[in-house]
Amino acid sequence: MAKLSTDELLDAFKEMTLIELSEFVKQFEDTFGVTAAAPVAVAAAPAAGGGAEEAAEQDEFDVILEAAGEKKINVIKEVRALTSLGLKEAKELVESAPKAIIEKTTKEAAQKAKEQLEGAGASVTVK
């Protein structure tokens, strides 16, 4: 396999859908044992204070779409707003429920996303 330049790699990424790119990132993380998560979350953890109870407390949450409900179009709009997915990708995600909409986010962001999706008529759980 020929070695690709940075510009060639960026051009290849530009042609991918967000779902394909997300799958690539997950596979990249697994292959190389790294994470593409924002370092802000890591820096915020020590500032919270140190205690055995706090260390055991969950700090990453997933927002799971259980069902779109009767107002599927409104749910698709909210999914697009929360994820920056295109219309086709958001529609596929909503139709494939139950599915994770947002993964490894803060408790506040997860609750806000849950409220927005439920306001649009979806059934949502936060794990």
Number of distinct beta strands: 3
Instruction: Note the overall shape.
Output: globular
Strand order of the largest sheet: 2-1-3
Query: Mean pLDDT across all residues, rounded?
Result: 78
| Percentage of residues in strands | 5-15%
Low-pLDDT regions? 39-45, 51-55
**Helix content percent band:** 55-70%
Radius of gyration over all CA atoms, rounded: 17 Å
Biggest pleated sheet: 3 strands, antiparallel
Element-by-element helix/strand order: HHHHEHHEHE
Terminus-to-terminus distance? 41 Å
The total count of helices amounts to 7
Structural class by secondary-structure content: alpha+beta
Summarize the structure.
The chain has helices at residues 6-14, 18-32, 39-47, 52-56, 72-83, 87-95, 107-119, and strands spanning 61-67, 99-105, 123-126. With 127 residues, it is an alpha+beta fold.
Features:
single chain, 127 residues, alpha+beta, 3-stranded antiparallel beta sheet, 7 helices, 57% helix
Topology (SSEs and partners):
Elements: H1 6-14, H2 18-32, H3 39-47, H4 52-56, E1 61-67, H5 72-83, H6 87-95, E2 99-105, H7 107-119, E3 123-126
Antiparallel strand pairs: 1-2, 1-3
Helix pairs in contact: 5-6, 5-7
Question: What does this protein look like?
Answer:
The protein is globular and about 50 Å long. The protein has 7 helices and 3 strands; from the N terminus they run ααααβααβαβ. It has helices spanning 6-14, 18-32, 39-47, 52-56, 72-83, 87-95, 107-119, and strands at residues 61-67, 99-105, 123-126. By secondary structure, it is of the alpha+beta class.
